[in-house]
């Protein structure tokens, strides 16, 4: 689905003003631990949306490693100014939604977004 | 790991300041940029960047200061991270997934899950970790460019 649809589904605000909302997103990954993003990130990064409550610049650095397609902040959180600047430099679109993480994931799944990784091997 | 040093095609060293959380990830981003500009395959870049990110975080979280060096040779990429800090009392225990000594500040930033060292091991072909308690830690890892020589 397009980033524009994700924005609609989640009543989200596009924090990085001139983001390309026609960008195609197919997968999602939700985590509040960047350790998990680093451990479980996969190669299909450009088509993946990261759903998180972490608003510090590290989230951009971590996303950058996987060339992630976009990030959405949940629970009404807003990125710090440093995070925003870094996202603009790295051309990663940032969205912000008032919905909690569970509701965010549920709505996206219902509309066809699928997990970038469904389960771990040794869980 | 002891390949002839004369084969080094590129070497750059980055300084890491312990406790500087705001810039955490900046150095591994630069490593990634260098590898991308050098034209390495995506998977090689990703594995090296992930391991470098985890290593950088460890210096920021637990050491006073350190250096991360990137070496590019015809056959492999090598990263050496040396720090001055509290060190690791028992390297084997620290390697266990989920083992962590992270404080609240580190966890607030989304780190400290005790996955870092095992994630470095998972993403690299060779890894050596040694530490002097209360002095510092030495970490090196290698990623083969052929992609076949795992182990």
Description of the molecule:
The complex is a heterodimer of chains A (123) and B (151). Chain A is an alpha/beta fold. Chain A has a single domain, classed as Udp-n-acetylmuramoylalanyl-d-glutamate--2,6- Diaminopimelate Ligase, Chain: A, domain 1 (3-Layer(aba) Sandwich). Chain A contains five helices and six strands; from the N terminus they run H-E-E-H-E-H-E-H-E-H-E. In chain A, strands 1-5-4-3-2-6 form a six-stranded mixed beta sheet, with helices on one face. In chain A, helix 4 (81-89) links the parallel strand 4 and strand 5 (94-96). Chain A starts with a helix and ends in an 8-residue tail after the last strand. The model of chain A has no long low-confidence stretch (mean pLDDT 94). The model of chain B has no long low-confidence stretch (mean pLDDT 91). Chain B is globular, with a radius of gyration of 15 Å. Chain B has a five-stranded antiparallel beta sheet with strand order 1-2-3-5-4, covered by helices on one side. In chain B, helix 1 (26-37) runs antiparallel to helix 2 (42-62) and helix 2 (42-62) packs antiparallel against helix 5. In chain B, strand 4 (126-132) and strand 5 form a beta hairpin. Chain B is 34% helix and 29% strand. Chain B has 151 residues and is of the alpha+beta class. Chain B has one domain (6-144): 2-Layer Sandwich (Heat Shock Protein 90). Chain A binds chain B through residues 31-39, 41, 43, 52, 54, 56-62, 64-66, 82, and chain B through 21-26, 28-29, 32, 42-43, 46, 49-50, 53-54, 109-116, 119, 122.
Can I get a quick summary?
The complex is a heterodimer of chains A (123) and B (151). Chain A has 123 residues and is of the alpha/beta class. Chain A is built from 5 helices and 6 strands.
């Amino acid at each position: 689905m397009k980033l524009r649809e994700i924005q609609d589904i989640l009543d989200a605000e596009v924090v990085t003003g001139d983001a390309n909302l026609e960008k195609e997103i197919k997968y999602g990954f939700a985590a509040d631990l960047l350790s998990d993003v680093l451990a479980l990130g996969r190669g299909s990064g450009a088509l993946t949306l990261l759903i998180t409550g972490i608003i510090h610049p590290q989230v951009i650095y971590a996303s950058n490693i996987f060339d992630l397609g976009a990030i959405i902040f949940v629970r009404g959180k807003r990125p710090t100014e440093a995070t925003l600047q870094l996202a603009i430099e790295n051309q990663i679109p940032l969205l912000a939604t008032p919905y909690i993480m569970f509701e965010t994931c549920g709505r996206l799944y219902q509309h066809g977004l699928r997990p970038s990784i469904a389960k771990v091997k040794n869980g | 790991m002891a390949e002839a040093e004369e084969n080094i095609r590129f070497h750059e060293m980055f300084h890491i300041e312990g406790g500087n959380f705001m810039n955490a990830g900046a150095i591994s981003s630069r490593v990634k940029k260098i590898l991308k500009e050098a034209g390495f395959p995506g998977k090689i870049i990703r594995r090296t960047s992930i391991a470098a990110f985890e290593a950088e975080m460890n210096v920021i979280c637990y050491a006073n200061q350190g250096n991360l060096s990137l070496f590019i040779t015809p056959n492999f990429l090598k990263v050496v991270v040396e720090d001055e800090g509290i060190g690791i009392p028992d390297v084997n225990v620290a390697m266990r997934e989920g083992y962590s000594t992270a404080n609240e500040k580190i966890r607030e930033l989304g780190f400290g899950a005790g996955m870092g060292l095992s994630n470095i091991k998972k993403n690299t072909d060779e890894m050596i970790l040694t530490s002097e308690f209360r002095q510092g830690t030495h970490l090196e890892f290698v990623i083969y460019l052929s992609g076949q020589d795992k182990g």
